Amino acid sequence: MGNLSKNGTTFSCVYIPSKVLIFMCVSGHTNGESIVKVFHRHGPCFRDKTVTLAPSLTEVIAHDQSRVDSIHARLTRKLNTNKLKQHEANVPVKSGRTLNSGNYVVTVGLGTPARTLTLVLDTGSDLTWTQCQPCIRSCYKQQEPIFNPSASSSYSNISCNSAQCSQLASATGNKPGCLSDSTCLYLIQYGDQSFTIGYLSKDKLTISADLVVPNFLFGCGQDNQGLFGSTAGLIGLGRDALSLVSQTAPQFGKYFSYCLPSVSSSTGYLSLGKSAASNNVHFTPFAGSQGTSFYFIDIIAITVGGRQLSINQSVFKTAGTIIDSGTVITRLPPGAYSVMSSVFKQQMAKYPSAPSYSILDTCFDLSSITTVTIPKVAFTFGGNVVVDLAPSGILIAVNSSTVCLAFAANNDPTDVGIFGNTQQKTLEVVYDVAGGNLGFGPAGCR
Ligand SMILES: *[C@@H]1O[C@H](CO)[C@@H](O)[C@H](O)[C@H]1NC(C)=O
Ligand SMILES: *[C@@H]1O[C@H](CO)[C@@H](O)[C@H](O)[C@H]1NC(C)=O
Ligand SMILES: *[C@@H]1O[C@H](CO)[C@@H](O)[C@H](O)[C@H]1NC(C)=O
């Protein structure tokens, strides 16, 4: 039992074993249970300024689907061709929703003097890039001033003949280009509409006041298009040699962790280096990376409301699963999603159902309901690591009256599953890349 007071209104809550309780419109913690915001136009907290509907969720989801399609395409391509000193640095992570992105962002400094840039945190890609003046072809509108290499005394272009230029092929999936003055060109495509093209460059990266990476290799984008919101670009945390993780391996030993906040008013973190990992973190071994830079993990089981779903193990084994900070909604093999959806519906039977919203097809109409109790959802990963999802990782509010189960099915059983950022919210997620383990801990941030 617990009480929560907000704007003079007190909401009481009842704790039901194996269930999590959700208050309409309120976010916070009570008795160790996190409470997610669910929007309700007629609810008691509608006037709360923190309650704003997510802008363009339809676009966020459409973009998400393009990203998932491109991940599937990359993997299919790859598979067909078969193919320390321990410091610690902490960077705050914020929800990118205010920047019109379904992703999470960190703010870093680039160049001398350092210019502030807000970049999307992406474990599903490798090369870090930012839009660069003079934007020869095109730059989209970003919140901060666009990085100007000629105003940085530590900037330089990388030449086509260098080893770093050749590394682009694996980091981006595209062969590097070469200008007549021997400047190395990169191209990255993320999905149908998103791409960046520019110079492979190096400059000083300031991760935090006392943490500087001199000669950091990144893409200086001269033609940038797609759905990056108003962020300045992207920070690549994949396994490839050009990723931030690999470039900082001498300092940080390929060890990083993050927490993605559940509400845009909250702040999570990105931490490089082996921190005093909390005791609550449990490690699952990475599964084989199939020759890619993705982080594969094994899903063993899914539990809904304390009940283990009856899903044949081979359903998860067929294509495997990656964890990705850049995919918003978790994608499951169709044979797993259908079981999850039907069990979730059974356990939510007392709430009226609502029509599908884009790829989300397990939806509920809460327009006449003030509090809702939802079943807990837990994932079991290899090594019997059980991860309880936060309420914000189970349901997503799609408009003022409707919430949907925040999972979707892949079209094809042979498409890789993706454990996305909605489901990672509030968890401490630890990547021990060198040690081959991925850790999950509860309540890393709120
Ligand atoms: C980098 O290469 C571009 C394209 O050739 C050129 O315009 C620019 O001046 C170069 N920058 C530096 C600092 O060499
Ligand atoms: C699981 O699926 C595999 C492959 O389709 C099948 O051979 C096996 O019998 C199934 N196991 C169970 C317990 O249904
Ligand atoms: C909310 O979304 C659902 C599902 O797409 C739709 O049926 C409903 O009409 C929407 N309601 C409002 C108020 O926009």
UniProtKB/TrEMBL annotation:
Active site feature: 122, 324
One GO process term, biological-process aspect: proteolysis
Coiled coil regions in record: none
Family that this chain belongs to: Belongs to the peptidase A1 family.
Membrane-spanning ranges: none
Residues in Peptidase A1 domain copies: 104-441
Name this protein carries in UniProt: Protein ASPARTIC PROTEASE IN GUARD cell 1-like
Molecular function terms, GO-annotated: aspartic-type endopeptidase activity
Entry annotated with the keyword S-adenosyl-L-methionine: no
Transferase found in the keyword field: no
PROSITE patterns: ASP_PROTEASE (PS00141), PEPTIDASE_A1 (PS51767)
Stored PANTHER family: ASPARTYL PROTEASE AED1, ASPARTYL PROTEASES
Organism: Dorcoceras hygrometricum
Keywords: Aspartyl protease, Disulfide bond, Hydrolase, Protease, Signal
InterPro entries: Aspartic_peptidase_A1, Aspartic_peptidase_AS, CND41-like, PEPTIDASE_A1, Peptidase_aspartic_dom_sf, TAXi_C, TAXi_N
